[in-house]
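Morning. Coffee machine broken again, so started the prediction first thing and wrote up yesterday's gels while waiting. Chain of 326 residues, entered below exactly as on the submission form.
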Amino acid sequence: MGGTDPTADNTVEADGTDDALYVLTAVLLTPAQYPSVLGDDYPAACAALELEPYAEGYGLVLGQDGAGARWTVIVDDVSLVAVAIASWDCGMEYDLSPDERSVVAALPGWPLAVASAAPGLPAPHDPEPEEGDRAPLAPPAGDGWGPAQRRLGADEVALQWAAWRAQMDESEADGADGGEGGEGGPGPEGSGPAEADGDGIGDRPHSPVDPTGPTGGNRPHSLSDPADPTGGDRPHDPYDGVRRALADLRGYLEEAPPVGRVRSSFAAGGARMLRADGPGWSLVARTDDMAFVLLDDEPREVLPVARGPKLPALLEALEAMAVRPS
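Came back before lunch.
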């Protein structure tokens, strides 16, 4: 989504004055690629920034002004921002200096956490508010759980898919050895009730996984205690929420949701990675594999959905309707 070139002397006018913005990073805000922390779909993400959801999209340039204050400058030169991000991701220098005429708005604060800071400036801080100013943008709190954290967790599962999938393989192997889950365990094709309901959802414990990913890092906290693979005694079935999410997804095939609710990106081996969101849930899936679901009602839990007999057709249909990065 974004790249950083803290050594480049990238500047852009932050608010139409002579106060230049020292660029730290940038992200795209388009129907197929937007910071999911802002909303479940592209129109919602635009609304969070008080923007019209134009099909061409925007670029978000994050940086500091001469006093060190955080600013998010929104530009309509999407191609320029995309080239800068691609260059930075490849380790190349790129001078991101959008023309002042491309600036749509300058908002105080940053909607995303940015680890770097401009050299020679005061530490990043929100600008002093003036009467009538909107509250500064800020990333969601890392110690809470809600729609924003749920979507960020799903993004991390997509980024760390191989590690998460390997963890599932280990769980399946434990089940095949007679561990929890019974003979055969909750394998990719499911077993028992999983085959009966056809969605790959069986009477199995939810995965003892951690949105920080098996490799760790600065990401959401663990979902459950790894020493307790069942997550403790629960008065309800967390997979009720997964079934609701799958029902919502089938509804998307009958009535198109707001653009950006279902997005498709590249995955290894000729498959596609699907990211979908809806009221209270997020889904991550590979078109050739299984899926994971996160729910507002299940803080920090990542719930696996085995492939089963119905999931492949659903994923194929969602891929056909998904928006893709150009």
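Residues 1-9, 14-18, 178-196, 203-231 have pLDDT under 50 and may be disordered. Going to sketch it on the whiteboard this afternoon.
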